[in-house]
Amino acid sequence: METMHTETQEYINGMAPGPLTREIPECMRNKYTLIQSIFDLTVTLLTAIGYLIQGIYRSLFRRTKKDLKGQIALITGGGGGLGSLIALRLARLGCVVVLWDINKQGLEDTVKLVKGIGGKCFGYVVDLAAREDIYRVADQVKREVGCVSLLVNNAGVVSGQLLLDTPDHLIQRTFDVNIIAHFWTVKAFIPDMIESNNGHIVTIASMAGHVGVPKLVDYCASKSAACGFHEALKVELESKGVDGVHTSLICPYFIRATGMFEEVQSRIVPQLNSNDVADRVVYAIRTNENVAVIPSYLRILLPFKWIVPWASVSEIIRSMVTDAMPGSPVPQADRKMQADVPKINGKVESRPMTLIPPARHDRHV
Ligand SMILES: NC(=O)c1ccc[n+]([C@@H]2O[C@H](COP(=O)([O-])OP(=O)(O)OC[C@H]3O[C@@H](n4cnc5c(N)ncnc54)[C@H](O)[C@@H]3O)[C@@H](O)[C@H]2O)c1
């Protein structure tokens, strides 16, 4: 066996300085690191306090809203639910709206609605679970419509079953649509935004990205990843000095009257009105807001999750959301009681994904 270099062995044993420490002159080693650390910490804290004061000032006094006229806005999942409501609002503000959805009928309906209010709108059928489809249609949009300057990553799916009852392909699809697709859409459109130093990436995540909920293990994990995606992308753009490309993270609680959580049993915090959420999203875009938690008072409660004992957190979550998906299949032990659950070849059928918008869409602008 090859014998380890003595210096390496001493470093591993903590008896000699490592390669980085060795770069600092011997006489300066201890003093330099301490003084430098204090200096760095002071500067960082003072800068952070400055931004804190600026943030408080901005939230107390009305923020200036940016003009979106003439911007090309692409909304994924724009063929239904929240996406279609955001589309109507952006069109009314003068954006050229591009909608992506897997649901052709929903897409055609929304394009008609947007055109009906005098908006300019283009619809493309895209499967966001397919990377090649995303890149192919992104090129088509660039050729046929122009450079996208506002990207709203809104499409989402939920499988809504207990983890062990969720088929692997639905878990995979939840991640493909709810987060992996964000990588491909951002990679497709952000280079033009960076080049022109003008753009905005909106990530529609969820409160479920901050709080775990039974029957939503894959959904919560994918939304948590979306929150991380937003934050890391934001810091990356800032570290590169790109100040004209903004990012916003939207974290709503359960919304009424979209296709996703129609039957959720939610208590304490009422379900949100889909029009209010769409208004809030557009406000966040126009004010370049970093994070919009909806309703906003939940933002104050979130840090308590890390402070209070876990039992309290769990109790609150389970009281608030008694059943996220009442219609979904129940655990193995309870299945015999569910005579009305649809079956294929004797197996309980998985809940269909939210690909078709519900009949009662509330599309007032
Ligand atoms: N509804 C809620 O309670 C709620 C709460 C918090 C966050 N959200 C998030 O808001 C976003 C919008 O949700 P919604 O309530 O409007 O749901 P929705 O089901 O009504 O709309 C989702 C849209 O995405 C489309 N879509 C799904 N899979 C797709 C795919 N593979 N390719 C292309 N399009 C696809 C659907 O066709 C649909 O039009 C989602 O990201 C969702 O996770 C929803």
TrEMBL record:
InterPro entries, alphabetized: NAD(P)-bd_dom_sf, SDR_fam
Transmembrane stretches, start-end: 38-60
Membrane found in the keyword field: yes
Superkingdom of this protein's organism: Eukaryota
GO MF term (any one): oxidoreductase activity, acting on the CH-OH group of donors, NAD or NADP as acceptor
Family listed: Belongs to the short-chain dehydrogenases/reductases (SDR) family.
Keywords in alphabetical order: Membrane, NAD, Oxidoreductase, Transmembrane, Transmembrane helix
Taxonomic path: Eukaryota, Metazoa, Ecdysozoa, Arthropoda, Hexapoda
KW DNA-binding (keyword) present: no
Organism from which the protein derives: Leptosia nina
Xref: SUPFAM superfamilies: NAD(P)-binding Rossmann-fold domains
CDD domains in alphabetical order: 17beta-HSDXI-like_SDR_c
Protein name: Uncharacterized protein
